[in-house]
Each structure stands twice: as C-alpha cells, then as structure tokens.
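Final report, closing paragraph on structural work. Over the funding period we assembled a curated collection of sequence-structure pairs, and we close with a single example.
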Amino acid sequence: MRAFLSAFFIMMMFLIILSTSAAREISMEGRTILFEQEPTLFKKGRAAFAFDIPKEADIAQTAYAVFIKGKELKDAPELFLNGQRVDMEPLCRRDGMIYALPYGGLKLYEKNTLELATPDNSDLRSSPISLTVFSLFDYEETHFVRVFADVDIFAQPAKHPDQDKYDVLHYDLAIEIITTAARIPAAVLTAQGEVTADELTQVVLDFKNTNGGLTISKVTDDLGKSLAFTHNTASSWLIITLPRTYIKSEIWTVSVYYSGTPDSTALQSTFGAPFRRSTHDSTPIIYTFSQPYGARNWWPCKDVPEDKATIDLHITAPSQYTVVSNGKLLNSQDLGNGKKIWNYSETYPVVTYLVSICCTNYVYSGGTYTTQDGSKTMPVGHYLFPENTAIEQNALKGTLEALNLFAELYGEYPFINEKYVTATHGINSGMEHQTCTSMGPKNTSPEGRGRQNIHELAHQWFGDCVTCQHYDHLWLNEGFATYSEALFIERYTSKEAFHNYVNSWTIEDSPAIVGPEADRFRDALVYKKGAMVLHMLRHVLGDKKFFDAAKAYHAKYAYSTVLTPQLQAEYEVFYGASLDWFFNQWVYGTGRPSYVWGWTTQGNTLKVTITQNQVGNPFIMPVDIQVSDIKGRSKTFVVLNNQKTQTFDIELGDFVPFLVQFDPENWILKKSVTTTAPTPTLLSVEADGKGGAKIKWQSSGDNTSGFQLVMSDNLTTWTLVANKDVLGAAIKEYTVPALPVQKAFYFRIRAISSTGELTSFSDTYGFRTGASLNAPKILIVDGYDRWDTQGRGVNHAWAATHGQAVHEFGAPFDTCANEAIISGDILPSSYAALIWGSGEESTVESTFNVQEQAIIRNYLNNAGRFFVTGAEIGWDLDYKANGVEFYNNYLKADYVADDSNGAFTVTGLANTIFDGMSFGFNNGHPDSGYEVLYPDSIKAVQGGVTCLKYSDTYMAGVQFAGVFPSGIKEGRLVYFGFPFETIYPSTARNEVMARVLKFFGFESDYSVFPKSGFALH
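Its predicted structure, as stored:
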C-alpha cells in the first residue's frame, strides 16, 4: 500500500529569517494533476474550488498533496476536503503552502470540493492564489519535508565537545501529555552517565527551544540540589554545571524539570514535527516521531545515534486513552482525577530517536511469540484505531511469520524479555520505534503481510538492536530492512516472486550510498540500492555464508552502533578474503555495468565472451552462466568477470548446450544485457491444412548467418525442427509436416551471428490441430510488444500460456503476432474466434492502433467471437482517447480507473459465464506470470454485462452477446481489465478459458476422440 504522509506547519516568517533566496521549484513532471485553477467561489474569509477526479488517477493507492500558491499568505488557512477539515497543518514555503491530503478523502465518482478558510475571516481575494492538487511519488510520501521544504535540514547538528566526555547510561522520563494540544504540562528528565574523559565539569544535553515554547523551571543533581545551567537556543545546548569535577569512570546524575509546547516548526525530524497532535475519526491522538534528530525537540537528551542508553518512561495521560511506549509495561495506575499513569521500562539500550509515545483510544489485538528454542514466550500484537479493526484484526498472522523468519535468519528476536507491538499513529509512514513500531493506518493489512509491517519489524534487528552510528551509513539500517521484505516474500510466497520483487526496484547509481547524501532518506539509494548491495553480497558468498555472516554481525554488535567497515569486516571473515573490491564499487562507488555477451561452442567447450561497455573501470562480479540442453536440463557455471572484455572456456563434457543464459536470476545490478546479434521476431505459427505447421519469422538485423528453429509439446523439452541444426539466413518460413492431431506444439527461433554466436530465443507461439482438419479454429494474437522495454526480458511465452488453456479445453488454434494481422498475412475472417493478449501494452505502442481497430470492428460486425485481456486497454483507448468509440461500442466498456483498489482476486457475478468462480491474478504467485502494475477498472456499457469484479466498487470484466453497431449477425465478446496469463493457478486459467469458449459456442473435440497419447518424435 502506498503511504500517505502529513506535513507540518512552518511559519513563513521563520523561513524568511533562514533564507531570502527563491523557493525551490516543485517539478510536476511525471505526476498526476487532479486540477490546477484559481478559486471558483469567494465568500468572506473563504475560497472554494470544485473538481472531478481524472480517470487516470489512482486515488486508492497514491497519496496527493495540495499546493496553495500565494506569496502573500502569512497565516495558514484551514483546509476542508469534501466538507471534512484536514487536521494536519501545512508545510509553508515562500511561494505558498503545501498540505498532504488524508488517505481516502477524495471521491472518484462525485464532484470534489476544497475550501480554504482564513483564521481571521480576511478576504482571500486580496492575495492572488491558485491551487494545484498533485500526486506524490513513494519517496515524497515518506519524506515530505525533505522534498518540499525551502531549507536544507538534515545535516547532523553540531555536538558540543563535552558530549564526547561522557556516556549516558540511563534516562528516566516522567511526562504528562494532554490530548487537546501538542503541549507538555509537566515533565522531568533524569539522566545518569559515566565519565569517559579524565574529568568532566559540565553535562551538555540537546534540548531545542527555538520558539521559546518550553520552559525549564530547574535542574537538580541526584540529591535534589539545584544546579546552574544555561540554555543556548541557537545551538540547542542545555549546559548544566556539575556540583564538582567528576573524574573518569565516575557516575553523575542530573534532573531537568520542564514544561510547555514543543516547537511545531522543528526541522530535526524527517517526518515532520517530532511531538504532535492530530485526529482520527474525530478522536485525538498524541504521538512522537523523532528520526533522525528530533528527540531534542520534546525531551532533553544526548541526541546522537552513537550513544545508547536504557530508559524508564512514566507517562500521565487522560484515563480514557491507552498509552503505548518502549519496553515492558510494568503497570498502569488510575490517579482518580481523570488521569492515568503508564509505567514502561526499556531495559535494552535504545538510541534517542527510537523513543516513542503514542496515545489514543486503541483497540489491542495480540498473541504470543515463542522463541526458536521454545524456552521463552513474549507478547506480540497491534494497537489499532477502532475504525480499522475489521481490516487489521488478523495482522498477527503475518507478524508472527516474520518474527519466526527473521529469528531464524538473523538470530533470536533481540528484545525477547519485553515485547513487540505496533501502534497506529497519525501518518502513513512507519517508524521502527524499539519494541513498539509506529504504523500508518491500515498498513498491517493484508493479514500482517503488508510491506510496511515486515519492513519495520526487520528494523528491530537492524536499525534498533544494531544501529548505524552516523546517518552517512544509513543504508546499514534501511538496506537490511528493505531486503528483509524480499526475504519474507521468498519464504512465504515463492522464489520467483522474490526475484520479481527485487527486479521491480528502482535504484539510483549516484551518489554513493555512504556519504552526506544518505540522510536525505532517498528511497532508490539507501533503501533500494542498499538492499541490492546485500542481494549481490549474498550471491558472492552463497546463502549459507551470507546468512551466517548476518547472524554473526548482529550478535557481535547487538545493542551497539556500527559503521560500514564493521559490516565489511564481519563478512570478510566468512568470505575468507578481502571484500574491498566489492565495497569499493558498490558501496563507496557509483554507477553500474552494462554488458554485451555471446557464446559459441568448440567441441565440448562452451566459449562465453563478456564485454562491459560502460565508461570507467570494469565492475568485478561473479556471473552466473546457465546452460540448458534440449531436454530442459540445466547446469549453472559461475565465472569471475573482472575485465572489460573477457572470454571464458567452460568444459561441458558430454552435456550439449541448447540454451545459454547470462545472470538468469538477475543477481547483478546492471544497466543492460544484450547479445552480439539481434533476436529474430516470430510472426506466426499456423496449421498448413495438411496436419502440419507453417512457421514464419523475420530477421532483426544484418549480422545473421542462419537460424535455429525448435519445437516442444510441453514447453520444457525442446528439439530441433527436422533435425536441422541451421536454417539458412535467407529462409523466413518453414513447414513442419503432419503432426499428431489433438496435440499442441510450440515453436521458437533464434539467430546465429556471422561469428557463430547464438542470440536469445524469440517469443514462443503454438498451434494445435483438432480431431478434424476442418474444425473451426481459434487464433491467438500476441499483442504484448512492450515486454522487453519494461526490463522484463527479451522474450516471453504468454501466447503459449493462452495456447495451453485452449489445448486443455480441446480446440484447434494458431498463433500470430499482431504485426501479422496488420500486414494482412493472417486474416481474422479465417477463424471462428480471436483471443488477443495485450498484457500491459500501452506505453511504447498503443494497445490497438487505428488499423487494428478497423480489423477488429469488421471482424465483430461479421459475427466474430473476441476474447481480449490487458491491463492498459481502457487507459489507452478511452482515457487517452486513442479509440473511445471502438472501446465503448466494440469492447462494450467505459474506463473507470487505472487501478483495482489493491485487489488481486476477482469474483464472477451471478448469472454470468463466471458465476461461482473466484480466482487470483498477479500478486507474486509462482504461477501468476508477472506483476501487473495497473489493472484497469471498467464499467459495462452499450449492452455489455459486467461478469467479473475486483470488489463491490471496482469491476474487472465484461461479456456481450448481440449484434455489434454495424453487424449483420450476433457476435460475442469477453473483455478483462487484467492479463489472462497472470491468472493463477493454471487450473483457474483453464476453467476461465473453457467458460469463454463455451460462451463462444465451441465444443471440446475430446468428446470426439479422447486426449491422444502420441509422443513427439
């Protein structure tokens, strides 16, 4: 679920004092703009805007913000969205203000209204303003202030020299909170520390009070005697004079008594004001969010990551609310005056930014975790908003799965004597507060397997127990947590889904992941590249050594802080040699390799040539070369590529190579992998009318000396067609003579370069003859040209996936590329039904161009049967207006949204062809093809009938039986807003295809003859 993040209020005059430079421009490139306009209605002290949601907008999973442009705005107006006040305060800039909109506040099918109201009823017409509502990227949702504030805010604040002279051992924080304001009526912070220098005369704590809202009434020693102090508001140092000179190893104690309102303009938190109030369902919530340097904004402490200490918290709050904080809840006491005190004890060392308080009307859903050796148990659970319990009450399932997995991989849960809980707070970002993660609303779902729930739990090992000593090394926290998301998928979904998840990451090459840019919390850098570094390191060491090293690293540095060299040193112990070569290029360096490769054979030797063509030095990496024979058996060889151009001789013995793949599981972060000759394009596989198959293709380049055409009856074991090792370069068509009836055969082709190297194979197409050569046939059309441009590979077999389902039903079929339809080489009128797979086609080429639309229109007007599926058809034809009339009148649909509202299960509607069916698609299942990013939500029109739904609101499929607009006889249509090939399991795909074909009037030819037992010869 994409996160939503609220902003906080920064006074305009404060920003002007900081800088007089122009505001940083907000780029709108690549965003969805809901609207951009001036007010449509003014009243006294108010301005109103009305707008509709564009059809392309994903309001279910994408966060949006409102930019109020107006340089003369001095006070933040109240913002109302569809009549509901937006509780979060805005981020104020020199050129206006930005509000993050609440999740779920926008309406897809109705008019939306935004209303501004000034606090003093001043006339908004006196200051020219306009509003832009725009989408946020994932990174911006989490780090709103970092992206949109005018000032650079995350350099680590300066330390006082005396802070290096002591080590804090323990904090005790007694604090009262109220829920009517972000104010602290009373608090006492007691700190105890050990002198590490020769002598110490003063204790310096960090305590920010820029706005003067906090008051220190007194500071005392351990005997209660008052101590002199100064509070430097510019540096935020609270300098306390000790009663005497303390020498090395002596223990000192100071207590700070304070109260007031923490600065809401504080800039030391990545996620907004560190101490804040908001509301949910009209109920107040007080919560803290201090990463990276925001703890100093609400309690005095040594606010640097390298100094951990234990802490006791005594939190007084209104008695009707629940308080969640770090460590073990010792007890809670009702004070009888409408207040209750909650006593927590965190006995494990904790860094200051991980100290947390959350207070609201929680509902608890919990259970018990048992250690791996069975010797201990621990409470585990989720403190939820009451309004979300129906959605999140089953979160314990995934949380326990993750606890068990990470305990197995990294060592036992590090805070086993206390607890692990989450507490929902007021923003959608998660934060790994030690033993008590703060979570965005609904972000544990589904069943605790939500990405955020897994990510924050992994931080308990890496980030909380073992913490980066400096934010230049933030990847040590975030890289492990992000990679743990993938490991969870690997364990509880599939290996294939794991690799798909890793391959989906957007990763930045520059700057290096260790350095001053790290504390910008850039998702594609410290999170995703950090995780990819661990992924590659796993491949370098192998699974056992990698996880043994992770476990040893965690055990060695538990409850302390680390830098990258310490991680490297621990992994070198298990690697058995220096890893400088790895860390220098991937951690301290920038860029990534770009490979060109090819292979030939010489006797029993496989010769693989690898060239790196990026600028600069070669990247040193072990590369997997997977070799498969014609029966589908495979062997993997690992070569160490450390030169710009390198040839490897791999001895195969009697293993005859048929297919050779470069880094097939994508373990290496790289720009591109290309072969030395282009892959040919398979155009069609069709019955020749005599029981055989006619295959046509076209070359993709001049550097070709011939082709290899192969066939299979199971998509696993392949054989050369007619035992011909090479077909001449001039040949573009080949006919395979009579083949067994009622059996499907699949074909693919590759080229041989002029130097003897073999290209990758083409897409895979199939055909099947029926019990009778004159039986009505089906044409499967491959319309997914975009596959290779999405970085998903150079070829696919999704047309063959359709063919398998048609064969299982028992009907004859041919297959072709959509280009063969356009050229007229294949005529739809020759077929009783067309099955058209568009996958996620839309960006590179349109789903149906004008010529294709005319062909399909003519086919349906002449009583054709058309089954079409794809995730972007409605977006392309209807929303982008590349064929609205065709889409409405011939696909019988109206486009609603580029989104299924997070649903990846569809249900058949009553009295339709899918009545009683429910099946999944996409969602990482090993049999689900690939991840579908934006399935279309559609609505049946022009006589179409909705036959599948994602949910009660979002529809997925349309069926139609009747005469098309210019038709002469009844035609039939079935259309899905998601790709057929991503349906899982295969039995569901087969059932879907069978119901479609029966709706089209086909009968299985297995009723004429049973399934044949013919073998491929």
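The chain has 18 helices and 57 strands. Residues 466-586 form a domain with the Neutral Protease; domain 2 fold (CATH 1.10.390.10). We thank the funder for supporting this effort.
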